[in-house]
Amino acid sequence: YNYFNLVRLYGPVPLKTKTASDLSQAQLPLSSEEAIYEVIVTDLTQAEKLMENAPWTSTDGRVTKGAVKSMLAKVYLTMAGYPLQKGGEYYRMAYEKAHEVYESGQFRLFDTYAEMRDPANANSGEFIWMIQREADRAGSPVHNDMLPYPEPSKAISQNGAYGGALAPAQAFYESYPAGDLRTAEKGYYYTEHEAQDGSGVVELGAPFIYKYWDASAAETGKSGMNYALLRYADVMLMKAEALIWTKGEGDAEAKQLLNQIRDRAGLPQNSQATKAQLMNERRCELAFEFQPSRHIDVVRWGLAEEYYSKPLHSVVSKMVDGRIETEEVEVYPGRTFNPTYNKVFPIPQTAFNGTVNLTQNKGY
Question: How far apart are CA 152 and CA 202, in angstroms?
Fold first, then answer.
């Protein structure tokens, strides 16, 4: 799992599979992306064999057969695209693993988005794999990090001053289809909330992320909410993607999968299962989640140059007369696509100190 994140974000990295017994063994060269994916697949296929008689789900949060097969589908789908570009065979393998999860009947889309925030649903239903949190000993920072910043004129949650890590750009928020329940108030986003002191509704003046709202943390200031790494909706979209890229646009099975996602969002079930629709549905459904990062999707689809040649905007919030006002500002005006930086990140210098030869830092 960690190497899968590293190779997608940084490209070639040092590949360490054995414990170092002396300092010289800590200095490793960069391994190719191909070699890193080979180890990832080996680990996952071995885990799959070990899980053959194990349960598909685990309400206590352990890694399960469902998690292994879902992750293997994601790995194969990634290998099919950039940079390895293994193509058709890997799309087929991705489909097969996603289909096994789908056909298991052990997972389901929640009927409403509110169910994603119900602690009673942790490690069940739509959630295939989650980071386990416990409020008093291993609290989650996610609730507080997603709160509005600056803090509204009246607090809407305990520890409200610690928010502001992330917020949707207004243009992104408005890009959802009309009537989409994900942008209905307190679907995935919210623009107002009851004051913590019960004195009325606080208008926030802009959309903020409600996807991870923790009602308990709003009262106590401490969050024990688990964080989803793999959702069933993602598996359905992976399966649809593999079908579209192998069988072509308009595939009936892919339509059915996309229409299930659209149906929950309150949208007409008229998907034509085009590549553009699939890409847009991933953008809308999986926004602001760890695993299905938009950047990672764009890169593996070979669209990085097109995507990163467009102006980059960021949201700046400020308090004006007791209200939060937001402004979208262009970051790096006049930027052009950089094939080095816009596909993978530079490896931090500190990671190279004492680890690999500095001349191997890919020219950064």
Answer: 7
